[in-house]
Design goal:
- The chain is mainly beta and 211 residues long.
- The chain has 1 helix and 12 strands, in the order αββββββββββββ.
- Strands 1, 2, 3, 4, 5, 6, 7, 8, 9, 10, 11 and 12 form a 12-stranded antiparallel β-sheet that branches.
- The protein is globular and about 50 Å long.
Length: 211
């Protein structure tokens, strides 16, 4: 309940800031598919870049909390140039099958976004099936993942709606350097391919564990 209240408070603050901003931007799968220990909390700083029409460069902040063995929540927002402004998000990832032997981790993530895109206010509700698998690269373990977010975008300006679809391909892993007592940074890189009424872009993030 304490974690839920913390996330709810953060989401309300983020929405308040986002509604008043003309340059807010947030997106991506983040670290919800990464194998975190239960009760681990991370703060991420992410570099973002949208390559589609109306895109631009920006920075993003994300909070991730591993609530249970099967559930992870995240929320955040950022600032960006371009025509896709006032976007923020929150999501909950539920693990269906763990990463075990030859079996990849499989989960489904429910998400909600609010954005201002090309002078239209949009609310997006969706689900993102995600698969990931741990591999060893040059003696270090990393976790490639593929997510397919599908959403319903409600246009508050003209009271219409459309469906959105994209493919998010990324990889996450620990940076081999401690930043405190038994603490390590976690990094992820992701490419987003817009398939229907969405956008294409890339981002790179670094996450720091907090108490």
């Amino acid at each position: 309940m304490k974690n839920f209240k913390s996330i709810s408070t953060m989401a309300i603050i983020a929405m308040t800031l986002g509604f008043g901003s003309q340059k807010a931007h947030a997106y991506g799968t983040g670290l919800t598919s990464y194998p975190l220990e239960v009760e681990t909390k991370l703060i991420s700083a992410e570099f973002t870049g949208i390559t589609s029409t109306g895109g631009g460069l920006g920075l993003q902040a994300r909070f991730t909390d591993k609530l249970s063995e099967s559930g992870t929540i995240d929320a955040g927002l950022g600032i960006s140039g371009g025509e896709r402004s006032a976007r923020l998000f929150a999501g909950y990832d539920f693990e269906l099958f763990p990463d075990y032997e030859n079996q990849p981790r499989t989960s489904i993530k429910a998400f909600i976004e609010n954005s201002k895109e090309f002078n239209a206010r949009r609310n997006i509700l969706g689900l993102a099936p995600t698969v990931s698998k741990g591999f060893t690269f040059w003696g270090k373990e990393a976790f490639p993942y593929l997510s397919i977010p599908y959403g319903i975008s409600l246009n508050g300006t003209n009271n219409s709606y459309s469906t959105t679809l994209s493919a998010n391909l990324g990889i996450s892993g620990v940076i081999p350097a401690e930043v405190g007592a038994n603490r390590q940074l976690t990094a992820n890189a992701e490419a987003i391919i817009g398939l229907k009424d969405s956008f294409s872009g890339v981002f790179f993030g670094v996450a720091y564990p907090i108490e």
